[in-house]
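Is this the right way to post structure tokens for a design question? Let me know if I should format differently. Anyway, here goes:
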């Protein structure tokens, strides 16, 4: 075997061995996404991650898959959430990042919002996405690069109630921040746009009328029945 043929056989094997020796991050793909709290800051890296080809082709200003990525999840509570690698917001990155936020599940991800470059950040190559995190909905967040890899800190910020959302009280169940229509559809009692759960709901079980109040109410109804017959005063 010639030296060139030996080289062609050995060099790829060396690269393969080196690649498999490097452990990928635990959240290297959608199925192993790391849950994060809001608010929080989370350190991560895509230097040893792999590329996920199940990401959306494009999503807002997210330009598609170019580099490895890592994954996170957030469970919504009816508040607006901002996720960012911008230092101005508590994030950080030593490379050109991209962020994409998705709903659905790992077998069928749907673009919600994405960003390549945050034009309002002091670092023009940082990324920021703000979205309404509906109560109980799981959101998938992928951090990747644009022709670069490196280390980052992902900041997750709570921006308060989503527009048009408010406290929805349930009998015997926790309060949720919902749209009024969704609250009524779920059998709750909507407390108003912008109203926080902790302010109003508490125990929303109707308070029964005292016996004397019931008697007084029945008496009032009976008297009305005597005074009005067929809509005429008697």
């Amino acid at each position: 075997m010639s030296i060139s043929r030996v080289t062609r056989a050995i060099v790829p094997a060396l690269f393969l061995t080196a690649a498999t020796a490097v452990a990928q991050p635990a959240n290297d793909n959608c199925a192993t996404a790391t849950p994060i709290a809001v608010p929080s800051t989370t350190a991560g890296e895509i230097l040893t991650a792999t590329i996920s080809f199940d990401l959306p082709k494009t999503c807002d200003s997210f330009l598609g898959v170019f580099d490895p990525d890592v994954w996170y999840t957030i469970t919504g509570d009816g508040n607006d959430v901002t996720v960012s690698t911008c230092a101005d917001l508590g994030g950080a990155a030593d490379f050109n990042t991209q962020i994409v936020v998705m709903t659905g599940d790992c077998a069928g991800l749907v673009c919600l919002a994405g960003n390549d470059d945050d034009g309002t950040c002091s670092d023009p190559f940082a990324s920021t996405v703000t979205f309404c995190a509906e109560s109980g909905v799981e959101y998938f967040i992928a951090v990747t690069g644009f022709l670069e890899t490196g280390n980052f800190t992902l900041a997750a910020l709570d921006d308060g109630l989503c527009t048009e959302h408010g406290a929805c009280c349930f009998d015997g169940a926790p309060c949720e921040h919902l749209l009024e229509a969704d609250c009524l559809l779920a059998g709750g009692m909507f407390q108003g746009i912008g109203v926080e759960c902790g302010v109003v709901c508490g125990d929303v079980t109707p308070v029964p009328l005292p016996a004397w109040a019931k008697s007084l109410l029945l008496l009032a109804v009976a008297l009305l029945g005597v005074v009005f017959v067929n809509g005429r005063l008697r």
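Format looks fine. Someone answered above. Worth noting: The radius of gyration is 28 Å. Confidence is low (pLDDT under 50) at residues 1-19, 204-209.
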